[in-house]
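Protein modeling request. Please complete all fields; requests missing the sequence field cannot be processed.
Requester role: graduate student
Desired output: 3D structure, token encoding
Chains: 1
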Amino acid sequence: MCRPRRGLRLDHLVYVKRLIPDRVATHFGLDGQADRWSSREGFYWMGVITPTATAAFLIVMGVTIRHAPPESLNVPNPDDWRSAQHYPEAAARIQDGMTLLATMLTFWMSGLWGLIAKAQALNPPRLTERAFVPLMLVFVAVMLVFAHQMSVGWNVP
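Delivered output (157 residues):
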């Protein structure tokens, strides 16, 4: 029977960890050559913990805004959006934005981690422009769309 996949499975993380060499190139210069190194453990846990902690922080911030005093809301036309009538809508928009940002950053960090892990297959490790540039272009484009979406619609509730 085929089970649907839900999220990242623990056995997949264990499998990936076995593929990572003992010494991992973690930073690359503009020429793509490795210039900083880490242990397998450090690289592995940084790739798991950083996206998880970042996403958790942003989601908690989004949830917290719903319970924060209206004066804490920093948006255009604050007198309108801080009113009891419109504050729930403003807080919901911010919470949705934080959740979306958490998702986008998690995908980007995971993609970057994957590219760095894949770069270890080359000897010496090298992060090629062919791999890195598309990831960055997509990320910048998505962030611009996100910034635009978050900035429109705040004129009048």
